[in-house]
Amino acid sequence: xxxxxxxxxxxxxxxxxxxxxxxxxxxxxxxxxxxxxxxxxxxxxxxxxxxxxxxxxxxxxxxxxxxxxxxxxxxxxxxxxxxxxxxxxxxxxxxxxxxxxxxxxxxxxxxxxxxxxxxxxxxxxxxxxxxxxxxxxxxxxxxxxxxxxxxxxxxxxxxxxxxxxxxxxxxxxxxxxxxxxxxxxxxxxxxxxxxxxxxxxxxxxxxxxxxxxxxxxxxxxxxxxxxxxxxxxxxxxxxxxxxxxxxxxxxxxxxxxxxxxxxxxxxxxxxxxxxxxxxxxxxxxxxxxxxxxxxxxxxxxxxxxxxxxxxxxxxxxxxxxxxxxxxxxxxxxxxxxxxxxxxxxxxxxxxxxxxxxxxxxxxxxxxxxxxxxxxxxxxxxxxxxxxxxxxxxxxxxxxxxxxxxxxxxxxxxxxxxxxxxxxxxxxxxxxxxxxxxxxxxxxxxxxxxxxxxxxxxxxxxxxxxxxxxxxxxxxxxxxxxxxxxxxxxxxxxxxxxxxxxxxxxxxxxxxxxxxxxxxxxxxxxxxxxxxxxxxxxxxxxxxxxxxxxxxxxxxxxxxxxxxxxxxxxxxxxxxxxxxxxxxxxxxxxxxxxxxxxxxxxxxxxxxxxxxxxxxxxxxxxxxxxxxxxxxxxxxxxxxxxxxxxxxxxxxxxxxxxxxxxxxxxxxxxxxxxxxxxxxxxxxxxxxxxxxxxxxxxxxxxxxxxxxxxxxxxxxxxxxxxxxxxxxxxxxxxxxxxxxx
Length: 740
Ligand code: ADP
Ligand code: ZN
Ligand code: ZN
Description:
about 750 residues; alpha/beta; 7-stranded parallel beta sheet; 6-stranded parallel beta sheet
């Protein structure tokens, strides 16, 4: 018997199967991880296929040394998926296979943890007699009493109750009354503190949604897009759907944008499904992640909740994949090999016969367009549960505030509403989206942001050389002293962050208590759970945070939501800026009024007339979609075109730039004569906006292309060429989440 093996070395040169001999003593299966000799060293590898004959000199074939596990770590459909990713992302197969496994499994960096247990070996009837026989040894008597239930007890647990437990155990096991043995222990992550809850009676909209969804568990078809307003009870739909999947003997994967954003989702699922659920996310320790992964692989946990990479969870007989908050950009991986978890979900659904459900209160332009085209099935839940009203939204024009002499960060209306909210003993949430490495430049008088002449994007302030730059076309100009639109001198980079807002809240509303949730305060492993718990317990009346608090959270006591600088995201140098702004505002507004009391929202903005802000204030998704869709069409942005870039990393900028420049030249030269050239709408080599990351200089070639099946292959060829010819690291990204 021979095995075709992919050796775990991420290099184009060894991106092919190698044939090894399978010793008779080694029962290998496809998907198993093995250790093999490779050149002078030993390497890990993956068994791709077994075969009876070798196609070359048998004497030269080396044998597989060992299997790393006694089960296939890779399920057959996931191996097929890896092939697909390799072709799409132009990466070596082993890099695609690595996505399917917890990173720490490679190189044997985590081990199965063993725990010692003690258990009686004598029959229950003889326990009393045994206890009597140890009259002069009270510790042994206590130990026997503790074990008298016949169950296996962890020695660690007994140690806490019996002094010198080891000595007693040794004695009793010598007398053959007790046995001590080792068992695999699973390291369990924190699942939050939710109590077991019972099923609510479904609303009509929830029932109707399930009537469409449940049959798809048995007969999958197109992916579904569930568009339900905030508070419409989408989670309950997920829970019931997953339960139906379990009943049919199938498993489920629920993707959430980021675990820190959705601690409550885990709590809710845990409270309904208990140990049948596992979580996979970046906050787990390596041991926890490995053990959760094994619980899934062994079929003990049939439900997986996790971030992006959980889409690769080894769930056998998959019934459904749910992608919650499907509009989130976190579903696009930024690391190589690049993938879109939503696409992977669709691909797994198709291959494994599972239903695919994308869900959002603010679907991505792409997904909603797919429902218009009939490629996805649209399900709508336009009302909140129990006839709770959507919150009332007030737009405050901050230019007006300035004219009235208010230079503070809070509008008069917001201050007044917050005071009233606190007086009634209710809670408030305050959102400020201060994120990114550089701010844009905004005129505080007229609301104008400085935009590029050639692109429909705001320019970004670079403090190093005090210039404004367009991250799309590379144009640069000095920071103007006066607003180009109204000549006012109140033109400056936006600079309020959460900390400054916290200070101001504490000054104006002493005693209310502020919990701040942002990257800085949630660094600890379970910090996000703790902050959420503290706010829910009412320890503070105000929860202040970045987009971390915008989504998914459900606090019935919150009746007021404020967005301090609502349009900050509008100024991001990205064609998706209006989409992101709309999504954020609707999501953040959706945190208000989820309990018995109706909610109110104050949106502070410098651009109240912007269509994204206006549509968000009306919570009118369709109005926004229609406008944005037309804008994308007119400007030839995705989904009408495709953005691609070659990111070139090198030791210094000169080399990175030279690489980018020569790739651009090559592409231009090679295609000038062909019809394909017309598909390239735009090509430019430039320094990347973030010029250095982890001590590597970065440059890129940006391309805007017309969609065409050939384009993909073409770009793949350039990637291969680039890898061969340039000393710099070149990486191809298609429709990247970020162009930074
Ligand atoms: P969404 O995700 O659509 O914003 P959630 O799933 O968070 O909404 O649900 C909003 C609130 O409504 C939650 O507190 C949830 O427990 C509650 N809820 C959901 N379904 C029902 C129902 N059928 N009856 C009563 N309350 C419900
Ligand atoms: Zn101005
Ligand atoms: Zn530009």
